[in-house]
Amino acid sequence: MAAITNRHLFVLLARLALAGVFVTAALPKIEDPVAFAHSVDAFRVIDAGLSNWIALCLPWLELVLGIGILVPAIRRASGALIGLLLLLFITLHLSAWARGLDISCGCFGSETGHASADYRWLILRNLLLLGAVILVLKQDRRNNIKDSCS
């Protein structure tokens, strides 16, 4: 068995954090898609009909990707899609902030009592998660290169 280095431990923790965040974010939205549809609609970038479809599909995608980041066979694809979602979320938060919208992001389902968003925190959190994705993808690429040279 190969020795676990600090780098491998850090990458493992990054994968676990990404999985935890995406699964934790997905479950309440799967449980209450109507509330999530209202959160999606509040961003005012798509019509209500499309908001409903996103509210039904996005949480399941987040759940699959959150689990997928832990599965070696689909880790790279899951990581790449998580990265794209995080870029989309950052863009949506920047857009809402620039337009002066004072809304709940709906990131972890219905956030009762939190009608407004701290956009700086939301953007920072997503940038940190994006950094974790990059770390995981870089390590996975290194491992694939190392395995192909062996």
Notes on the structure:
- With 150 residues, this protein is mainly alpha-helical.
- The protein has one domain (6-141).
- It has helices at residues 6-31, 33-42, 48-68, 75-98, 119-149.
- The radius of gyration is 17 Å and the shape is globular.
Question: How would you describe this structure in keywords?
Answer:
75% helix; globular; single chain; mainly alpha; 150 residues; 5 helices
Number of separate strands:
0
User: Average pLDDT value?
Assistant: 90
Largest sheet: none
The 3D shape can be described as globular
- Helix share of residues? over 70%
Relative strand content? under 5%
Rg over CA atoms, rounded to whole Å, is: 17 Å
Oligomer: single chain
Give the uncertain stretches in residue-range form.
Answer: none
| SS field, number of helical segments | 5
Specify the structural class. Answer: mainly alpha
Ends: how far apart? 16 Å
In total, how many domains does the architecture comprise? 1
User: What is the succession of H and E elements?
Assistant: HHHHH
